[in-house]
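From the shared-data thread, chain only:
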Amino acid sequence: MKIKNLAILLLAGLLAGCGSTADDEKAAKGDIYTEVGTYPIVKEGETDSFTLFAALRPSVTSYNSDKNLFTRYLEDLTGVDLEFTNSVQADFRQKLNVMMISGEYTDVILSAFYGPSELLLYGQQGLFIPLNDLIDQYAPNIKKALDENPLIKDAFTSDDGNMYSIPRIGKTKGTEYSHKMWINHVWLDNLGLEVPKTTEEFYQVLKAFKEQDANGNGDPDDEIPFSGSPTAWNADPTLFLLNAFIPISSYSFLNLDENKQIYQIRVTDEYKNYLKYMRKLYAEELLDPMVFTQTNQEYLKLFAAQDGFGTVGATTAGSVTTFAHTTDYETWGQYSQIAPLEGPDGLISAARAVDFGSDGLVITNKCDNPEVVLRVFDYMYTQEGVVKMSFGEVGDGRLGAAPEGSVNYLGEPVEYVRLGVDHSTDACWNRIGPDYQGSDFEMLFGINVGDLPDVDQLLYLSSVNDYAPVAQDVETIIPPLAFTTDESRTITDLQLSLNTYFDESELAFITGKKDIDKDWDAYLKQAEVLGLSQYLEVQQTAYDRKYGNK
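Structure, as tokens:
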């Protein structure tokens, strides 16, 4: 017994000694750092480093400082060496999975775009460390950005109260409101028509396009009044037109009602009315039947002028570059964006992709200096930092000095102009990892001056003036949710069958293979058979778990 007790005492002494040594080493290492909020991060004559894994962005062949100018600048600024493992985008997820399974992962992983469920799972397993206290202590710019964006802060706070990822914050207005309608204004002028403002007026315009030789080539039968594509960027007309009947976001067909209960849009009366409207367009040959199947290339070819005459009257798309090449002004110059249409019940609404942030950075349990990681990336939450990281230095990368008289989208003077992504290689990171592009970020840069209108300016002005004022209320949009392992299995099992059924039924209703009135009850009944109520219950449970008391 005495020998056993002696062994225990010796082991305790050894463990105490190890802990003391580790604490002493950490305390000693702490002496190499400068005051938080200042650069460099390490004192003169000292060094520090951490490892990172990231996918290569366009115009980037390496993030390591021997090639990448921004990494070299950042290492000089902070005094910290960044040791990257680079991956081409196509292999990134597979390599990341292998790293995580083998346990041979880096200190930091950039832009893996983990969802809430994965972040919570890896966090609770101890693979990703909590960042709340680190942000409060070592990252004043990140803390300020999160405080200014409570929706994103909430979205990135897991159900256990921890943040396991630093989000990328900020998107352009053109991407936030990207479900736009474009109409051929040359055809409107040819027929003496006004820009439609309601779904009924839009229907009448499409009828005129079909029946009155809108392109003026003498052939009244070669016009396609309304087309689109399921694969080109937001060229599927569903979300634009459905918003005239019921608000819907860019994320899913699920909404929150006034009591914070989740419901499926595609079993509502409003959706049924939308289907009837689309059925009318299809039955009268105003809607291109290829809208459900044509590829990007087929869609682009459709818009190419035939002997100088256009063939399409209207389309939905995220930009003119969705249906025409940027330099093909002869084609896209015929089209103008129109505002969201007023529906039969007076609703005017626009789909929006609310910025809930995206996973920019996680710190793994391999990292022994997470406070240094936070201080390095805190720089990306300054205007100087995000500009240099995204575009590089003026003259070296995708950023140029603005010529005298240059103005932004609102006509205000600017210092910079953005250059094309292929203008340089390895001058910057081209926006990888966490950063903060504030609400005025787009105003830092001058519009493109030349013979053609600036497409990004067109998108910005239309988004701000026409779409943002009527966009769906964020209180009715479901934020990203975290599911338990069992909930995730249920969601995965049910979601595929339900979505397939809803998609196939929508096509059948619009094309007339199913009768909307006669077959509606059977449609609802089959959705229940496929597990709709169970699916909504799991979604509601996850929502209530996080937001039920707010």
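The CA atoms of residues 154 and 547 lie 9 Å apart.
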